[in-house]
């Protein structure tokens, strides 16, 4: 066993019917990641913020170089243009007014409009706590199976998988019995449900380094959560999948979770 540590404090997420792809903690300089999830021809990209149940424009980008930023945001917002499919929104000098729901959308051919929803929250400091860790070894370019190994015969009817970073939580996929999977925007082309209790992540790279969390719901009402840590060494050769010990709950208590309502 290897020592590792990670614990999230509570974050209140009120999605109210929205498909939330990511939760981002408010900081003085803040990046909201938006990458087109499919290989497509992109004509335009738009960033909007939801205010009082209406969507208000922040920025619009018409490829290849035409960028419009609303006057309210011009002094403290920029949109990256390193590649045509990455239009991350970068804030500086943020305030409490920047908390809320953000929507980025790519206008593409042949897939139409592809969207990602991000929830920016003010509170949710990340703390650390020592945990025991099992480990598995794989190599870059290989596929990796993340699996919850239950200590009982009670069937799992829904599982949610997330990637957890110091200032962000991303939905990977939600697998449910007899239902279509719900994909996070950044993972929909790389992940699939193998069963209700396991998922396959394709083509692992060094950039997949980090903490992963799964939460399960069983048919008898039992709920719980567990952790996986994906580690790469400095030269990017070997990867360690560190499967953190399972933490079981008998009530639904999920800290900083992504909810599909």
From TrEMBL:
Q: Which GO terms describe its biological process?
A: cell adhesion; positive regulation of immunoglobulin mediated immune response; positive regulation of natural killer cell cytokine production
The membrane topology term of the UniProt record is: Single-pass type I membrane protein
Instruction: Write down the Pfam families for this protein, in alphabetical order.
Output: V-set (PF07686)
Keyword Aminoacyl-tRNA synthetase listed? no
What InterPro entries does this protein map onto? CD226, Ig-like_dom, Ig-like_dom_sf, Ig-like_fold, Ig_V-set
- Positions of transmembrane segments: 239-260
- Where located? Cell junction, Adherens junction; Cell membrane
> How is this protein annotated for GO cellular component?
adherens junction; external side of plasma membrane
- List keywords of the entry alphabetically: Cell adhesion, Cell junction, Cell membrane, Disulfide bond, Glycoprotein, Membrane, Repeat, Signal, Transmembrane, Transmembrane helix
GO terms (molecular function) for this protein are: cell adhesion molecule binding
Ranges for domain Ig-like come to 3-104
Q: Which family does it belong to?
A: Belongs to the nectin family.
- Protein name as annotated: Ig-like domain-containing protein
The source organism is Laticauda laticaudata
């Amino acid at each position: 066993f290897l020592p590792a540590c990670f614990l999230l404090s509570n974050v209140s997420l009120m999605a109210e019917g929205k498909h939330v792809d990511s939760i981002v903690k408010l900081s003085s300089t803040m990046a909201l990641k938006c990458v087109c999830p499919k290989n497509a021809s992109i004509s335009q990209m738009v960033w909007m913020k939801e205010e009082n149940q209406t969507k208000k424009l922040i920025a619009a980008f018409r490829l290849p170089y035409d960028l419009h930023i609303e006057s309210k945001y011009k002094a403290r917002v920029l949109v990256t243009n390193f590649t045509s499919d990455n239009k991350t929104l970068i804030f500086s000098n943020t305030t409490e007014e920047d908390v809320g729901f953000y929507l980025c959308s790519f206008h593409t051919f042949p897939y139409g409009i592809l969207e990602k929803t991000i929830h920016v929250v003010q509170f949710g400091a990340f703390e650390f706590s020592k945990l025991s860790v099992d480990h598995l070894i794989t190599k870059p370019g290989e596929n990796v199976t993340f699996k919850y190994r239950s200590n009982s015969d009670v069937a799992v009817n829904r599982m949610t998988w997330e990637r957890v970073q110091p200032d962000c939580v991303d939905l990977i996929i939600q697998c449910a019995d007899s239902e279509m999977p719900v994909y996070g925007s950044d993972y929909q082309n790389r992940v699939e449900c193998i069963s209700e209790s396991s998922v396959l992540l394709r083509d692992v790279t060094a950039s997949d380094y980090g903490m992963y969390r799964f939460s399960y719901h069983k048919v008898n009402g039992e709920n719980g959560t567990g952790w996986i840590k994906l580690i790469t060494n400095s030269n990017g050769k070997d990867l360690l999948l560190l499967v953190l010990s399972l933490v079981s709950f008998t009530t639904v208590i999920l800290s900083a979770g992504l909810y599909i309502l």
